[in-house]
Task: inverse folding
């Protein structure tokens, strides 16, 4: 592996060709979702649009499908769906980041691009800074951390991951953390130049009480991957950086973590006065637990807030290493705040440009066949009165031995229940087959369901809510997707499309 000294420009590291070849051969590797060329991928970092170009930096191990000595990968796009690889942005050096360049963000200071990230050395993670070239292809890390120690006085369960913005003519920074034995929190800092920071205190915190790893709303003992922004309610409501003078609602996104266990992403909505964030309610950001982890958002040039998240794997570490790749990005999502101050998401419109070969649903006895493909985008328009339901059988074989079962049922006038049964999703007994479930708030009986299916990933969108998961069918015929209605439910339409491969580079080549 090429080594760099602190302060030297980052160079591209060669990736083992055999690793890329194995990744390209794996039929379970997603096609139209973003994946690294090979090796390991986790958190999205430095997501932004600058001069019309979308940038996606991401946590990456280019040498193995294992979480070890993390680098920053980098890709660019003009449309959020077709990507071009760029040189590695950050490579572990010999100083504060010698054991890994962990999560962070991209900002521009006086016209110069800069990466604020957590450098790992031993068991310590401290905020570091790298200065970029104008094209953002080359980065020079500063030799020392820009904050040399975590806050003192209370033992912390972690201190990493960053959200950085301009407010009141100064830079502000949040760093994710947790008070050991108490619960998650995030610390607020201020700076003139991104190099010298003053601690202002804790922006927000939670006292979690008993450990509850099986509770999908438990906030964890540390808050990772924090993101903070203002948002006006409404589908087209304005959104921007935090601003304590406006009185607008603010959203704090974080990922609940406990002693090395990545749990689930959450969103807290409340008010911000410039120093403290008062939480009014906390909601699940995705109903699939850890499979849409570490979300990070940005505002693009059209004014949309766009969210990226890491689709964690649900197969063994051995299987990931053998496959030559691990981790994919969930489809980019538009974020808004509804009139109830509930955070909502949906796939960005650009994904429809990958559609091809439209298929109308067809009847097969009492079953409606939606599609027969491992890459599908489907839009289901259905009426579900109280007491009725829709059942989806995804990635199912002809004999039903492998299938993932999803049920959307109307449990009460104001809510839908979504459940996913993965107990038969794979004949491989080492895969994660735990269930998912959650409630979707909606007053209407006529609902829209969007399905994004891609080899080993499932994304379900229902009335502003999402459920993201991973499944690993072993049989080649596990490509049929079916829909069944209860007696009182009514299907209006359900067109589906196969999806084209958006990669135009050597990303998927041997």
Result:
């Amino acid at each position: 592996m090429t080594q760099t000294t602190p302060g030297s420009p980052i160079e591209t590291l060669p990736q083992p060709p055999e690793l890329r070849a194995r990744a390209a051969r794996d039929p379970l590797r997603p096609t139209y979702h973003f994946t690294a060329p090979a090796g390991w991928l986790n958190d999205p970092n430095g997501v932004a649009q600058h001069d019309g170009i979308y940038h996606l930096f991401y946590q990456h191990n280019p040498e193995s499908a294992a979480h070890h000595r993390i680098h920053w990968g980098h890709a660019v796009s003009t449309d959020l769906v077709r990507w071009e690889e760029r040189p590695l942005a950050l490579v572990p050096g010999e100083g504060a980041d010698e054991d890994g360049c962990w999560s962070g963000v991209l900002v521009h200071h006086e016209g110069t691009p800069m990466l604020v990230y957590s450098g790992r050395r031993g068991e310590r993670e401290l905020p570091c800074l790298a200065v970029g070239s104008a094209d953002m292809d080359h980065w020079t890390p500063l030799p020392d951390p820009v904050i040399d120690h975590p806050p003192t006085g209370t033992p912390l369960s972690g201190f990493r991951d960053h959200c950085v913005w301009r407010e009141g003519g100064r830079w502000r920074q949040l760093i994710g953390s947790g008070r050991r034995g108490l619960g998650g929190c995030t610390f607020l800092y201020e700076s003139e130049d991104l190099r010298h920071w003053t601690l202002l205190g804790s922006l927000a915190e939670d006292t979690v009480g008993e450990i509850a790893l099986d509770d999908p709303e438990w906030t964890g003992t540390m808050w990772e991957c924090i993101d903070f922004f203002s948002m006006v309610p409404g589908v087209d409501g304005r959104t921007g950086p935090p601003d304590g003078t406006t009185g607008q609602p603010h959203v704090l996104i974080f990922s609940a973590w406990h002693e090395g266990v990545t749990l689930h992403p959450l969103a807290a909505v409340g008010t911000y006065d410039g120093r403290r964030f008062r939480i009014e309610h906390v909601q699940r950001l995705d109903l699939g637990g850890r499979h849409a982890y570490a979300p990070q958002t940005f505002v693009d040039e059209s004014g949309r807030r766009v969210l990226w998240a890491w689709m964690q794997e649900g197969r063994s570490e051995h299987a990931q290493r053998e496959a030559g790749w691990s981790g994919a990005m969930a489809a980019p999502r538009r974020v808004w705040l509804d009139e109830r101050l509930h955070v909502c998401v949906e796939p960005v419109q650009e994904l429809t440009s990958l559609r091809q070969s439209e298929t109308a649903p067809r009847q097969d006895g009492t079953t409606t066949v939606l599609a027969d493909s491992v890459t599908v985008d489907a839009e289901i328009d259905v009426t579900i009165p109280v007491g009725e339901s829709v059942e989806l059988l995804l990635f199912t074989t002809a004999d039903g031995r492998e299938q993932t079962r999803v049920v959307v049922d109307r449990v009460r006038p104001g809510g839908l229940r979504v459940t996913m049964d993965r107990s038969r999703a794979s004949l491989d007994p080492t895969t994660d087959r735990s269930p998912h479930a959650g409630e979707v708030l909606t007053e209407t009986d006529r609902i829209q369901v969007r399905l994004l299916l891609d080899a080993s990933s499932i994304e379900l969108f229902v009335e502003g809510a999402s459920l993201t998961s991973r499944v690993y069918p072993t049989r080649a015929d596990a490509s049929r997707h079916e829909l069944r209605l209860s007696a009182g439910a009514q299907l209006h339409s359900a067109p589906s499309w196969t999806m084209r491969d958006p990669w135009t580079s050597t990303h998927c080549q041997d």
Remarks:
- The longest helix spans residues 17-25.
- The first strand starts at residue 39 and ends at 50.
- The chain has a mean pLDDT of 94.
- The radius of gyration is 22 Å.
